[in-house]
Write a structure and sequence with these properties.
Blueprint (H helix, E strand, L loop, with lengths): L2 H27 L5 H8 L8 H17 L1 H4 L18 H4 L2 H10 L15 H13 L11 H7 L4
Helix pairs in contact: 2-3, 3-7, 7-8
The structure holds heme C (HEC).
Heme C binds next to α4, α5, α6 and α7.
Length: 156
C-alpha cells in the first residue's frame, strides 16, 4: 500500500470510529448538551459550575419547562389564575431541600399541585429541583442528588 493510500485509509477509519462514538453518546445522554451555552446560562462571577453540574441544571431546565412551566411559568413567576405560586425567591425553594422535595413528590392534595412520584424518576426530579433552587436568582449553588429524592420517597 502506498503512503498516500495508507493515509486515506487511516482518515476513513477515524471518521467511522468518530461516527460510531457519537452515535453511542447520543443514546446514552438522550438530551443535547452544549457546554458553551450551558456555561453562559449558569456561570457567574460568584460561581463557576463543573461540567457534570451544568448537565444536571440544563436537564432540569428542559424538564421544568415541560412539566412545571405551564403553571409556575418559565420565568418562575407563577400564575395567579391557576393559583400557582412564584418559585422565584420562594421560601420553600430557598429553604430546606427536604420540604421542597416532599412537595414535588407528593403534590398538594386538593390543590392544583400534582404529585410527581410516579411520573418522574429520582434523577429527573433531582435535576428539576436543582434547577429551581438555582434559577431566577435563587442561587443556592447546590445540586440535589438522586439519593436525596430516594430518601424522601415512601415517607408519607
Ligand atoms: C397544574 C399546575 C401545576 C403544575 C403543573 C405544577 N405545579 Fe407546583 N404548585 C401548583 C400550585 C397550585 C401550588 C400551590 C399549592 C398550595 O396551595 O399549597 C404549587 C406549589 C408548588 C411548590 C411549593 C411552593 C409554595 O410556595 O407553596 C413547589 C416547590 C412546586 N409547586 C414545584 C413544582 C414543580 C417542580 C413542578 C413540576 C415538576 C410543579 N410544581 C408543577 C401548581 C402546579
Amino acid at each position: 500500500m502506498s503512503r498516500f493510500y495508507f493515509h486515506q485509509f487511516t482518515q476513513y477509519f477515524m471518521m467511522v470510529t468518530a461516527l460510531i462514538l457519537s452515535g453511542c453518546n447520543k443514546n446514552n445522554t438522550d438530551i443535547p448538551f452544549n457546554p458553551v451555552t450551558a456555561r453562559s446560562h449558569w456561570n457567574t462571577k460568584q460561581h463557576s459550575w463543573q461540567q457534570s453540574e451544568l448537565k444536571i441544571l440544563e436537564q432540569g431546565r428542559r424538564l421544568y419547562k415541560v412539566n412545571c412551566g405551564g403553571c409556575h411559568g418559565s420565568d418562575g413567576l407563577g400564575d395567579r389564575l391557576i393559583g400557582a405560586p412564584a418559585l422565584k425567591n420562594n421560601s420553600i425553594v430557598k429553604g430546606q431541600s427536604q420540604q421542597h422535595i416532599q412537595i414535588v413528590l407528593y403534590g398538594k392534595p386538593n390543590r392544583s399541585m400534582p404529585a410527581y412520584k410516579s411520573s418522574l424518576n429520582n434523577q429527573q426530579l433531582a435535576a428539576i429541583i436543582s434547577y429551581e433552587r438555582n434559577a431566577w436568582g435563587n442561587n443556592s449553588y447546590q445540586i440535589i442528588h438522586p439519593q436525596q429524592i430516594e430518601q424522601q420517597r415512601n415517607i408519607q
